[in-house]
């Protein structure tokens, strides 16, 4: 059990199944095996992973959620043509008593559609007070479908909006943080007064002014409510988590074909990112579960049927 638990921790850290098998066996002082060890670790992820991570599962949505998605591309070695292999949806959650928050949920899906986000939002009870997102419409539509008019206040990520505006100012030779325009941008999303001042300045720069007009209604609303809402303003924590996940998933994106198995692996990753993974704890959790009469699913029960792939 200790060897399996150690392998689950290594998978959560981003190691391949083959690497996790080899390292866990070395740590246990056992002889190395050939590549078939990868299948053994894959079986552990499928069967033991959900048991090991169960104590760390989130049970209800927190006060604030920051949401984002990312695409994983794969390249056909014959045609050299790149296509979307799958998408990942992520939610960083901020309970009212936890200012730094944690990775609340992550899910691999074929497409980041409204229905995918709706399924994720419906997977836990509770209604957040605030949802921070980028410009993607799918999570916004899903929030309305899931929680209705009493749902969370939707807010554009201030960091992303600031970066967009800064890029639009750059062609005009404006990039220094101490320039009058950049000073106004630094205050633009903090109050109605700041947004008004930035809008007035933007009329002198066509591209910036057009951007302001497109987003004025939403940003005017969020700056008006900023002080009354939980003090979270960026989806940057989701970006940081995605960078860590992409570092090991992207080079082998072609390997991820089964949605359920990939999501069981991602739950190990989520637990690691939240600093909650521990081989001794995993082993104890599995033993306690089995001693209490818990049963394990049969290996291979979540495999896709022939000719059908649930992820791509």
Describe the fold and architecture.
This protein is of the alpha/beta class. The protein has a domain at 158-228. Helices cover 48% and strands 13% of the residues. The chain contains 13 helices and five strands. The chain has helices at residues 2-12, 17-27, 36-47, 49-53, 114-121, 137-147, 158-169, 180-187, 192-202, 206-225, 236-249, 259-273, 279-291, and strands spanning 64-75, 82-94, 102-109, 130-133, 153-156. A five-stranded mixed beta sheet has the order 3-2-1-4-5, sandwiched between helices. α7 (158-169) runs antiparallel to α8. The longest helix has 20 residues, at 206-225. The mean pLDDT is 91.
Q: What's the arrangement of strands in the largest beta sheet? A: 3-2-1-4-5
As a percent range, the share of helical residues equals 40-55%
H/E element sequence: HHHHEEEHEHEHHHHHHH
N- to C-terminal separation? Answer: 33 Å
Mean pLDDT, nearest integer? 91
The percentage of residues in β strands lies in 5-15%
Number of helices: 13
Number of strands: 5
Summarize the structure.
This protein has 312 residues and is an alpha/beta fold. The chain is 48% helix and 13% strand.
Quickly list its features.
single chain; alpha/beta; five-stranded mixed beta sheet; 312 residues
Which SSEs are present, and which pair or pack?
Elements: H1 2-12, H2 17-27, H3 36-47, H4 49-53, E1 64-75, E2 82-94, E3 102-109, H5 114-121, E4 130-133, H6 137-147, E5 153-156, H7 158-169, H8 180-187, H9 192-202, H10 206-225, H11 236-249, H12 259-273, H13 279-291
Parallel strand pairs: 1-4, 4-5
Antiparallel strand pairs: 1-2, 2-3
């Amino acid at each position: 059990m200790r060897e399996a638990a150690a392998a689950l921790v290594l998978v959560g850290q981003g190691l391949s199944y083959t690497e996790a098998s080899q390292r866990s066996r070395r740590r246990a002082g056992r002889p190395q095996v050939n590549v078939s060890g990868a299948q053994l670790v894959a079986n552990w992820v499928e069967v033991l992973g959900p048991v090991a991570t169960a104590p760390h599962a989130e049970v209800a949505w927190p006060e604030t959620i920051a949401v984002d998605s990312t695409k994983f591309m794969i390249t056909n070695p014959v045609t050299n043509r790149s296509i979307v292999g799958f998408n990942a949806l992520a939610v960083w959650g901020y309970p009212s008593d936890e200012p730094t928050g944690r990775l609340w949920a992550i899910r691999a899906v074929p497409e980041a559609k409204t229905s995918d986000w709706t399924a994720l939002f419906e997977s836990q009870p509770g209604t957040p007070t605030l949802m921070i997102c980028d410009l993607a419409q799918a999570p916004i539509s899903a929030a309305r479908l899931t929680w209705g008019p009493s749902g969370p206040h939707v807010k554009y990520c201030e960091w992303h909006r600031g970066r967009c505006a800064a890029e639009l100012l750059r062609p005009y030779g404006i990039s220094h943080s101490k320039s009058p325009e950049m000073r106004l941008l630094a205050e633009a999303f903090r109050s109605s007064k700041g947004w008004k001042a930035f809008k007035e300045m933007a009329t002198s720069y066509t591209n910036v002014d057009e951007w302001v007009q497109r987003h004025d209604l939403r940003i005017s609303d969020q700056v008006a409510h900023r002080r009354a809402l939980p003090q979270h303003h960026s989806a940057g924590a989701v970006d940081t988590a995605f960078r860590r996940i992409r570092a090991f998933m992207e080079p082998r994106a072609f390997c991820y074909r089964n949605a359920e198995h990939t999501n069981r692996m991602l739950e190990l990753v989520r637990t690691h990112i939240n600093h909650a993974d521990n081989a001794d704890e995993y082993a104890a959790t599995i033993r306690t579960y089995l001693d209490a009469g818990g049963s394990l699913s049969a290996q291979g029960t979540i495999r896709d049927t022939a000719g059908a792939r649930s992820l791509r």
